[in-house]
């Protein structure tokens, strides 16, 4: 009987997992089939979204082109529910129908092995008013909306909240692409706090060169149509606010009954399998506070580009459901 492998999410980890599992299936002539579910027809280079937000064209990468010849069946839609008891996933077609892949209003897909690679969602960091009055660059749609707002409304000032890598990338890219725009970067801690003193000094020189003013140790109490309210009662007026206050974990893993940690991340073993559901692999950015996975012995790491590359590098026979003997444990970790 054909072993059904269902991969949810075609980001860096999901696309790599599907492609490499397909390679192993072809190489070893296994009786297995892979279905990849993604909300959009294109692969999103998440580490380049700050360039999109600044109005740059980073190109389009259709998933169909990446999967051509692999035998992977691409289904376009949003994952609504995972039923681990029945081993089914309910998928609803989103607003991306018709270009590539198969779309249906709603369908249920069965699996023998599930690869959960849905990653993280944009978070507001709990800043009041951010959801209604601030932009972000956490997704392709939101990055394009930010670029469109800058292009069409021609704001004179932009306040960027968050001094981590995402905030730095957005602030510097927008400032460089729009030299007439006044850009201010505000952060609760220190700008580029994770870098060495030499690295932080370099970042501050770049910010100064681009005309970006940086304010450290600032607590944002809220966002409104006129800018930012600070905890000390003062204000920062801005025509446009970009809030990069972090990412959140999608609730689907917890709702599906997978064992999760206190932050909602699925808990996995060293083989990337759910500790509660061995037929479910959870792959993505390891050990980050916003990742979908949480290795039990790992400490949360910072979100950043070093974690964004394709991480599943081998998908052995076990994932494909073969009955051949193998001493190697199924894993999606790096070789």
What would you say this structure looks like, in words?
This protein folds into two domains: 3-121 and 247-320, 3-Layer(bba) Sandwich (FAD/NAD(P)-binding domain), CATH 3.50.50.60; 124-243, 3-Layer(bba) Sandwich (FAD/NAD(P)-binding domain). 24% of the residues lie in helices and 25% in strands. The chain has helices at residues 12-28, 49-53, 63-67, 130-133, 140-153, 165-177, 197-210, 252-255, 317-320; strands at residues 3-8, 32-38, 42-43, 61-62, 73-76, 78-83, 88-92, 106-110, 113-116, 120-122, 157-161, 182-187, 213-216, 220-224, 227-230, 235-237, 240-243, 247-249, 266-267, 280-282, 293-294. The two termini are 29 Å apart.
Features:
335 residues, alpha/beta, FAD/NAD(P)-binding domain, 2 domains, five-stranded parallel sheet, 21 strands, disordered C terminus
**What's the CATH class of the largest domain, please?**
Alpha Beta
Shape: elongated
| Count of discrete alpha- or pi-helical segments spanning 4 or more residues | 9
Radius of gyration: 21 Å
CATH topology of the largest domain: FAD/NAD(P)-binding domain
Keywords: FAD, Flavoprotein, Oxidoreductase
Protein name: NADH dehydrogenase FAD-containing subunit
Cofactor: FAD
Pfam families: Pyr_redox_2
